[in-house]
Design goal:
By secondary structure, the chain is an alpha/beta fold. Helices cover 51% and strands 9% of the residues.
Length: 551
C-alpha cells in the first residue's frame, strides 16, 4: 500500500461521520464535562418560573438559557420604563419602553438558544396568582421545577414561602434580594440529596485490606530478578501491598503503629530500589500512610445512616434514602465492611501495561462488589414494599461510584434566621458583616412593603404616588428591631450596610446583576442536576468591598 493510500485510509477512519458527536454534544461539550449527560438531561427537562424581568432576573436567565434549560416562564406585569431600558441588556432601549417588560425580555433571551422555550405572563403578578386556586393558582406554582424570586414584595414573598414550605412536594424557591452593591441569595428547600457532589476526595485503594486478586498479584512480583526498567515501573500500590504483607508476618499481623515503626517501614520501601531515581518507590514511600490508615466508612457517610426519615420526606429523595439504607446494610454485613470499591485510580508511575493491568484488577473487583450491593438493595426494596423498578441501574451505578462523596442537605424555611434569636446573637459575634447586609436588606424590604401599602391608600385618596426613599434613621431602627435585646453589631459593619441600602434602595445595577446572574444560575443548576453542593444558608454579597459570605 502506498504512503498516499495509507494517509487517506487513516483520514477516513478518523473522520467517519458515524463516530462524530452530534450537534447537541458539540454545542454543550464543555458543560457535559462538568455534569455529564444525566445532568444535561435534567437541565433540559426543567421548567423554571421567574417572578420578575428585572436586570438581575434576565442576567440569571441568560446563564440558564445558554446551557440549555428546557423552559422558563416569566411572571411580571411591569411595563418597561426608561430606567429599565437603561440598565437591562435584554431590552431594546427606547424601543422597549411602554411595552410589557417580560415579553421583551423573553423575546431577546430566546435568541441565545433555539433549543429553549420561553413564556411570559403579563396579565397578573405573583400576588394575584397566590390569591387564585386550581390550575391558575397555587397548584400551578407547584408544577414548576424551581422558582426564582428577585426583589419580590415582602408580603407576597412571605406568602409564597409559607405556601411552598407547607408541602414537601413543592419546588425549591431561590430568593434574591439586592440593592445597589449589596445582595443576598437564599434557597428554600426541604431536603436535597446529592449523589455526585464532585467533592475533591479520593476513594480508598484498600491497600490495608487488599482484595484477593490484588494480594495475589502483589505477592507474585519477583522484585529481585526483575529487569531494571520494569522494576522502576511497578505501580506503588503493588509495592505497598507486598511490603505490608511481609511486615505483618514479622509483627503479629499488625501494620506499623509507632513513629519508629513507620519510619522503619518507609526505609524498607526505599531500600528495595535498584536505582536512586526510581519514582515509583518514592511514590510508595510518600503514600505509605495508607498502610496504617484503616479503611473504614468515612464519618460523614456514616452520619447519613442515622439521618431521620419520615412521612414528610420529599418524593424525589426517597430513592436516595433507600440506597442509603442498602449501603448501611452492605457496610455492616459484607466483608471487609467498608464502602464498595471504586474503579477510579490516581495517576502513578507505571508502564502502560502495568497500569492497564492494575486498572483491570480494580475494575473487575468493583463490578463484583457492585453486584453484591445490588443484591443487598433488592432485599431492602423488598422489605420496604417498594417497586423493584423504583431505582434504575444508572442511578445505582452512580451511587456506588460516588458512595464516598454523598451529601444529604436539610433545608430551612425563608426567614428562619430572623426568628431565631440565639442564631442572631451568635452571628452578631461571628459573622457581623454578613448579618449587617442581611438586616439592611430585610429592613429595606419591610419598609418598602409599608411604603407600598401607604401609597395604595394615599393614591386612592389623593391620586399621587411618591418614590420610595427611606432615611438612614428609618432603616437603622427597622434593622435593629430584628435583633434580640442587648445584641448589637459592630458600628462600622452595620453603618456600611445601612448606608448602601439608603443610597440605592431600588437600584438594580448592571454590575451587581451580572455577578448575581452567575452566582444564582450556578446554584440553580446544582439544584436541578442534583450535582455539586449548593449554598446552604444566606449567601451575602458586598461589591463595595468585594467579598461574599454565608450565614
Amino acid at each position: 500500500m502506498s504512503a498516499g493510500s495509507e494517509s487517506q485510509s487513516l483520514q477516513s477512519a478518523t473522520t467517519n461521520i458515524e463516530s462524530q458527536p452530534d450537534q447537541k454534544t458539540r454545542r454543550y461539550d464543555r458543560q457535559l464535562r462538568l455534569w455529564a449527560k444525566s445532568g444535561q438531561a435534567a437541565l433540559e427537562s426543567a421548567h423554571l418560573l421567574v417572578l420578575s424581568s428585572s436586570s438581575t432576573s434576565t442576567s440569571i436567565l441568560k446563564n440558564l438559557v445558554l446551557p440549555g434549560t428546557g423552559q422558563f416562564t416569566i411572571l411580571d406585569r411591569t411595563i418597561t420604563s426608561p430606567s429599565d431600558a437603561g440598565n437591562n441588556f435584554f431590552l431594546e432601549g427606547l424601543d422597549s419602553v411602554g411595552k410589557p417588560r417580560a415579553e421583551e425580555a423573553v423575546r431577546l433571551l430566546l435568541e441565545l438558544n433555539d433549543g429553549v422555550k420561553g413564556h411570559s405572563i403579563v396579565q397578573k403578578d405573583i400576588q394575584q396568582v397566590l390569591s387564585g386556586e386550581g390550575e391558575s393558582g397555587v397548584q400551578w406554582l407547584k408544577g414548576f421545577s424551581l422558582i426564582i424570586a428577585h426583589n419580590v414584595e415582602k408580603n407576597a414573598l412571605d406568602q409564597l414561602s409559607d405556601l411552598l414550605w407547607a408541602d414537601v412536594k413543592s419546588p425549591p424557591l431561590v430568593i434574591i434580594r439586592s440593592a445597589g452593591f449589596l445582595a443576598e441569595v437564599f434557597i428554600q428547600f426541604h431536603e436535597h440529596a446529592v449523589i455526585d457532589s464532585h467533592v475533591d476526595s479520593t476513594p480508598s485503594l484498600r491497600i490495608d485490606k487488599p482484595f484477593p486478586a490484588l494480594l495475589e498479584r502483589s505477592l507474585a512480583i519477583d522484585f529481585e530478578n526483575m529487569d531494571v526498567t520494569d522494576h522502576g515501573h511497578v505501580p506503588y500500590v503493588f509495592i505497598l501491598v507486598r511490603v505490608l504483607e511481609e511486615w505483618k508476618k514479622s509483627h503479629d499481623g499488625n501494620p506499623p503503629r509507632t513513629a519508629a515503626e513507620k519510619k522503619e517501614f518507609k526505609s524498607v520501601i526505599l531500600n528495595m530500589r535498584k536505582k536512586a531515581d526510581e519514582e515509583n518507590f518514592e511514590e510508595a514511600e510518600s503514600q505509605a500512610y495508607k498502610c496504617w490508615t484503616s479503611t473504614v466508612v468515612p464519618s460523614d457517610i456514616k452520619s447519613l445512616f442515622t439521618s431521620p426519615t419520615s412521612s414528610n420526606t420529599p418524593p424525589h429523595t426517597k430513592p436516595f434514602h433507600i440506597l442509603l439504607k442498602a449501603l448501611e446494610v452492605y457496610t455492616s454485613t459484607v466483608p471487609p465492611n467498608t464502602l464498595p470499591l471504586s474503579s477510579t485510580l490516581p495517576d502513578m508511575k507505571a508502564s502502560t501495561t502495568e497500569y492497564v493491568e492494575i486498572q483491570k484488577l480494580y475494575k473487575d473487583r468493583s463490578v463484583e462488589e457492585k453486584n453484591e450491593f445490588k443484591g443487598v438493595l433488592a432485599n431492602v426494596i423488598k422489605e420496604q414494599g417498594e417497586d423493584p423498578n423504583l431505582i434504575d441501574d444508572e442511578t445505582i451505578d452512580s451511587f456506588v461510584k460516588n458512595s464516598h462523596i454523598l451529601r444529604l442537605l436539610k433545608g430551612k424555611k425563608w426567614g428562619w434566621v430572623d426568628e431565631d434569636k440565639a442564631a442572631l446573637a451568635e452571628y452578631a459575634q461571628t459573622s457581623s458583616k454578613q448579618l449587617g447586609i442581611h438586616l439592611a436588606l430585610s429592613a429595606l424590604s419591610s419598609l418598602q412593603a409599608k411604603h407600598a401599602q401607604a401609597q395604595a391608600t394615599n393614591q386612592s385618596q389623593e391620586g399621587q404616588r411618591a418614590d420610595f426613599a427611606p432615611s438612614l434613621e428609618e432603616l437603622t431602627a427597622e434593622a435593629k428591631a430584628t435583633l434580640p435585646d442587648g445584641v448589637e453589631l459592630p458600628e462600622e459593619d452595620f453603618d456600611n450596610a445601612i448606608g448602601e441600602a439608603a443610597r440605592s434602595p431600588t437600584a438594580d445595577l448592571p454590575n451587581t446583576a451580572a455577578l448575581l446572574g452567575g452566582v444564582v444560575a450556578q446554584e440553580v443548576i446544582k439544584m436541578i442536576t442534583k450535582q455539586y453542593v449548593p449554598i446552604d444558608g444566606y449567601c451575602t454579597i458586598d461589591l463595595v468591598e468585594t467579598w461574599t459570605g454565608v450565614l
